[in-house]
Specification:
This protein is of the alpha/beta class. It is built from twelve helices and twelve strands. It folds into two domains: 135 residues, Rossmann fold, CATH 3.40.50; 143 residues, Glycogen Phosphorylase B (Rossmann fold, 3-Layer(aba) Sandwich), CATH 3.40.50. Helix 6 runs parallel beside helix 7 and helix 6 packs across helix 11.
Length: 298
């Protein structure tokens, strides 16, 4: 959405085509309209943008493209099917820009569809380097467009905050740090989506610690950041960018992050990078450096 807002601010007309979760009033209205009008992707409006929602992108795209007559189409997505769609749309004559912010498909063993007519854009130098290594392509970098005003806050910092406490994101590391630092308060904030059994087990352990609060996913992250002194991001994934790191940095909040993927370039001088295979003591030492020493924190 930030990309759409940025384009609109430059006087471009932007229309959005997206999937549809089978729940809620948006889904219900969409399905009723689809049935009555015989339209696979009926249009609604969000933040002043025309939004087309549905399931079969191949069925819906041609009609939407005929109506909107786009100069270009920006595709984003992490699924193999997204790459297939980009290939199909480009061969149909549309100018396709694929904005890569997930590497699971390029790094997989699956043979990619014909993407010779697709222009790729990377969200970080790490992503661009990976695509060059995997596909032999030199592609430009456009860092994620994140609206500062949506996240910048006045601080009353009280917590070490971890967002999306799942195993792959290093929740066990954060849990071990919290357990070893009973004098420091921690806030674990869920991301969107249902928690799998391993994450539910972590939630149960976290809620048993007196210095940890566990919060549901938040529509407005400003309240979370306003109470954050240090952001913790010990992810094991090869992250292509650390969006929450950037969001926190708008308010001068430092991050302690793993050395995976694009995290080092995302954090820059705004925090501490810890090797993912470091001991718990090394993570604790990094936290103590920022929590206990004002000069290092500044």
């Amino acid at each position: 959405m930030d990309l759409a807002l940025a384009l609109r601010s430059r006087k471009h007309h932007v229309a959005i085509m997206c999937g549809l979760a089978p729940k809620g009033m948006v889904w219900l209205k969409n399905r009723i309209t689809s049935r009555v009008m015989g339209n696979a992707f009926p249009m609604d409006s969000y933040m002043g943008f025309p939004v087309y929602r549905g399931w079969n992108f191949y069925q819906g795209f041609s009609a939407i493209a005929e109506k909107e007559n786009p100069d270009c189409v920006i595709v984003q997505g992490a699924l193999y099917e997204t790459y297939e769609f980009a290939s199909w749309a480009s061969q149909a004559g549309h100018r396709i820009f694929f904005y890569i912010h997930d590497l699971s498909v390029p790094l997989s063993d699956r043979e990619l569809p014909d993407l010779t007519r697709v222009t790729f854009i990377a969200n970080s130098p790490f992503t661009a380097a990976t695509i060059k290594s995997r596909l032999g392509l030199e592609i430009p970098v456009v860092p994620p467009l994140i609206l500062q005003k949506a996240y910048r806050v006045q601080l009353t910092p009280r917590y070490v905050t971890m967002i999306n406490p799942r195993p792959g994101k290093g929740a066990d590391i954060a849990l071990a740090i919290a357990s070893a630092c009973p004098d420091i308060r921690f806030s674990f904030v869920e991301a969107w989506g249902k928690l799998e059994p391993a994450s539910l087990a972590i939630k149960k352990q976290a809620q048993a610690l007196p210095n940890v609060q566990w919060l549901r996913s938040q529509l407005d992250m400003r309240k979370i950041y306003s109470q954050t002194r240090v952001l913790l991001a010990p992810s094991r994934y090869k992250e292509t960018w650390g969006r929450v790191i950037t969001e926190a940095q708008f308010s001068g909040i430092p991050t302690i992050a793993s050395d995976q993927g694009a995290f080092p370039e995302t954090v820059g001088p705004g925090g501490i990078i810890v090797p993912i295979n470091a001991s718990t003591d090394e993570w604790i030492a990094a936290l103590r450096r920022l929590w206990d020493c004002d000069s290092d924190y500044q």
